[in-house]
Design goal:
Blueprint: E1 2-3, H1 17-26, E2 31-34, H2 41-45, E3 54-59, H3 63-67, H4 74-81, E4 86-95, H5 103-120, E5 124-129, H6 132-142, E6 149-151, H7 158-166, E7 169-173, H8 184-189, E8 196-198, H9 220-231, H10 235-250
Parallel strand pairs: 1-2, 2-3, 3-4, 4-5, 5-6, 6-7, 7-8
Helix pairs in contact: 4-5, 5-6, 9-10
Length: 254
């Protein structure tokens, strides 16, 4: 089982990181992918170790950090992401939920991330909140056949999901997918499992039945179980497909 989006280096895990990772290993998590919030995230990732879990680093600037004044250049981002240990570019994207004041700055940052991802042939990890059309429009504009990645924490409509897939994106299925009133599971049920990967976004957005609690990698099992129910297939089938998708997307050997 793979958690493709986990901020396990976050301060929320400072007091019990060993126990959290042991629980993850116990349920079968053997890979954890760590997107960055900003460049300060990267050295924190180096501190995360466990004998039975492989950890994979990304580098990038979260759009809400752009709101706070963080900026990067194509040259700086390329320098970080060209390191062989960095498997992906991000997370980046657009977020209009907290403020629409920084739309142009967020778009500029997103385009920089897209350009670096294409140059390095590494996948991009896209955050989206209240910005779906603009996000997919930028991806469409930047897509030259070399851009690939994932719409992290997918919450779109069926048409938006299909457009994202057509643009070369996988759909990251996480905690919101399990919420009874969100309606995301109905949409996901009509989209192809072959284009999905599993994630937690820990410590945020814990899935049912842990909703409202601190999320952690072990909880990806609840999302996987719900996905097997929605897709009317076995849990093993879900894990085989989503694990393979994740490893192929990020170029990781088993």
């Amino acid at each position: 089982m793979i958690d493709t989006h986990c901020h396990i280096y976050a301060d929320q895990f400072n007091d019990d990181i060993e126990e959290v990772l042991n629980r993850a290993s116990k349920v079968g998590i053997d890979h954890i992918f760590m997107p960055a919030i900003n460049f300060e995230s990267v050295p924190k990732m180096d501190e995360i170790v466990h004998p039975h879990i492989r950890f994979h680093k990304m580098a990038g600037i979260h759009p809400t950090d752009i709101n706070g004044g963080t900026r990067t250049t194509e040259e700086e981002l390329f320098k970080y992401c060209s390191n062989d240990e960095i498997i992906g570019v991000g997370e980046t994207g657009l977020d209009y939920y907290w403020s629409a004041e920084y739309k142009s700055e967020q778009e500029q940052s997103l385009r920089i991330h897209c350009k670096v991802a294409k140059q390095l042939a590494k996948p991009i990890v896209l955050h989206n909140r209240d910005s779906t059309k603009d996000l997919l429009d930028v991806v469409a504009d930047e897509q030259d056949g070399n851009l690939r990645g994932v719409w992290h924490s997918f919450t779109g409509s069926e048409d938006e999901g299909k457009r994202a897939i057509d643009l070369g994106l996988k759909l990251g299925i996480g905690g919101i997918f399990t919420f009874k009133n969100a309606g995301v599971d109905k949409v996901v049920g009509r989209l192809p499992l072959e284009q999905m990967i599993l994630e937690t976004d820990a410590p945020y957005l814990a899935p049912a039945p842990k909703r409202g609690k601190r999320n952690e990698p072990a909880f990806v099992k609840y999302t996987a179980q719900h996905l097997s129910k929605i897709k009317d297939c076995s849990l093993d089938d879900v894990l085989q497909v989503t694990d393979s998708n994740a490893l192929n997307l990020f170029g990781i050997s088993q």
